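Example record for the data management plan.
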Amino acid sequence: MLLLVLAGCASVAPDLDAQAARLMTRENVEGLALALIDNGAVVKVSAYGRRNGSQPLTQDTVMYGASLTKTAFAYLLLQLADEGRLDLDASIAALLPRPLPRLLPQYRDAGFDFSDLEGDERWRKLTPRILLTHAGGFANFRWLEPDQKLRFHFTPGSRYAYSGEGFYILQLVLEQGLGLDTGKEMQRRVFDRFGMTRTGMTWRADFATDLADGFGIDGSMQAHDQRSRVRAAGSMDTTIADQARLWSGIVRGEGLSAAARAQLVRAHLPITSSRQFPTLAPGVNPDNARIALAAGLGVVTFRHAGALTWFKGGHNDTTANMVICQEAGRRCIVMLSNDVRAERIYPELAHLVLGATGMPWEWEYGPAANTEKGAP
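Corresponding structural encoding:
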């Protein structure tokens, strides 16, 4: 277990490199980047494989952050709450200058259209805390609905169902309610704070010098998207070196009071669902209660042998990201890949670094997940 013995045995690190290469070969993973954090400090950053057809993946290769964006955004909101500028338990009806279904045309034109909720007053029950814990009642995205219209599937706050739509509403609270620019605040309060020089919420021309394209489940390559709009749910481009700085800062609680940092990983809402995806599928997993699986603020928490662990993933057809952090010892493994097949090797990599974590891989990735297969 690398981080458990790192201080006394630095020679373990090269073995992790060999194991990562072996696992990548086994599952045909094109590119992988890792960062290890111990006691809140970055102790290893590595990159393996390719960023596109022929160029190597490096520590400074820009990769798609996907839903890791949500935790970075949650960290920004916690700073505002710490300063008394945002009440996490206030109704969004009190935080927005206009009713959510009746936004100004410029916001609707920018893709923030909530007119489908007109006539359903349950939107007034939404609070920042409810949205940060994915308990808003929405599908992940409205385009997944049969008619592509947004609707409530349950009373806000009553259960967990992962939803990017809730983070769009939180972005509106920041921009309309507080009059802040999400992109600029993320840059100033998060990226600049942690020295993340090759990270942004929208595309930058300098990213093109070292940029990862993506590989799908069938091995086909897709060009990296150049995102032109800030989206709190997932527009961050970043590098493994920058993510190492971000998560080491988060696990230390830099920029937050101790009370606010504790809110991030508090078990706000028990998670009972059999799987995280599809988000609205029926079913209850009794194993969730055994590990106290719960929603934190932009992360998911659980307990293994009594110890608190939390995690956040990020995924699309060509992206596989995962961060797992143990509160005891402030240890984390950060895994980014431009190849979705990397999710097949993450359980083993996490076990090599953190030991037996109790991580609910099947809840996260489904019943085919490799649950620490081959772990020592």
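Summary line stored alongside the record: Confidence is low (pLDDT under 50) at residues 1-13.
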